[in-house]
Amino acid sequence: MKRKFNIWEGNFIYTLLAIVIGFVVGAILLSVAGIDPSVAYGSLYEGIFGDKKYIVYSMVYAAPYILTGLSVAFSFKTGVFNIGAEGQFVVGSLAAVLVGLFVDLPPVIHPIVCMLAAAVAGAIWGGVVGLMKIKRGINEVLSYIMFNWIAYYLSNYIVISKSVKDESVEATRLVKDSARTLMSDKMVIATGCPTVNWGFVIATVCAIALWFIITKTTLGYQLRAVGLSKTASEYGGISSSKIFMSSMAISGMLAGLGGAVHTLGMTGRISQFAGQESFGFDGITVALIAGSNPIGCIFSGLFYGAMKYGGNKLTLVNAPKEVVNIIMGTIIFFIAIALLFKRIMVSVSEKKNSDVKSAKED
């Protein structure tokens, strides 16, 4: 007998409810601050959909968030909480900039080499933490946090070195034009966005490839098996240490690639940090909204990038752009406790179906 579909068993409905609640909480706080929520949200909407260039800007903003979201989502599949995506993002950016500054290559090949360098740097940064966990039993969460700060200060140290620093600003020199991932002048004219680049396309391809690996390959099966039960997977002949190491390296690779996409596509350089930029931490938000689904990360990354870009327009109506962070924080809070609601709703739905079945039998 075909089982009846129950809407409350999926994750989408809870994510949608969490998003609605997030905007409601934001509206309440705006009202308390004496700002009309309809005006503020109207400005937010206009800042995202008011012009085609705003939509393109949102896609440009979304690209690094999609990749850091994929990084965190992939590690979640093996039961690893990758709170180190921030550091991996930074070393990826750094590797891309250094190759972009000091290596001479043709225009098409140069950005590819830069991104490969970033991916390798991120993979090493994540892999070292995995090695410490496997060989010495060092807690990976603590290692990730420390490695975030090591990456932060390493970047600042290199940025101010004489061979790299721009004399006029506290940042590196701009990478060579051949290393940029910007699209053609025709696309700039057509979209109205001077920083339109291949980042979103790259992030989308990575998401599809990751979905295929997780769902259609032996490696993906092993990753999911270890994530569900380390003991059971080892009993089945899967090396949990090997899978654990692979997961952390691939996760780091994705975050490092996110750093390259952001740097080569948008900024063209790395500035001296006054604080962590939080691309990696925001990736946690993207992964949670997506339910750790790689394809879902495309849409949640778009949502997050659009909110970040559109949020800048809130200042036009004297509304604090920080309200976007409040909305996103509220969304994550309710997604985090969605499991409780899910259990309650599924239980209520099953009890209702059971009562109906009993009534029919009587």
Describe, in plain words, how this protein is organized in 3D:
The chain is an all-alpha fold. It has a domain at 61-301. It is 73% helix and 0% strand. The chain contains 15 helices and no strands. The chain has helices at 12-32, 37-49, 52-77, 85-102, 109-136, 140-159, 185-191, 199-216, 218-228, 230-235, 240-267, 279-289, 294-311, 323-336, 338-361. Helix 3 crosses helix 12 (279-289) and helix 3 (52-77) packs across helix 13 (294-311). The mean pLDDT is 86.
Protein traits:
362 residues, mainly alpha, 15 helices
- SSE string, helices as H and strands as E: HHHHHHHHHHHHHHH
Low-confidence segments, ≥5 residues, pLDDT <50? Answer: none
* Biggest sheet statistics: none
Report how far the terminal alpha carbons are from each other: 21 Å
Short description:
It contains 15 helices and no strands. It has 362 residues and is mainly alpha-helical.
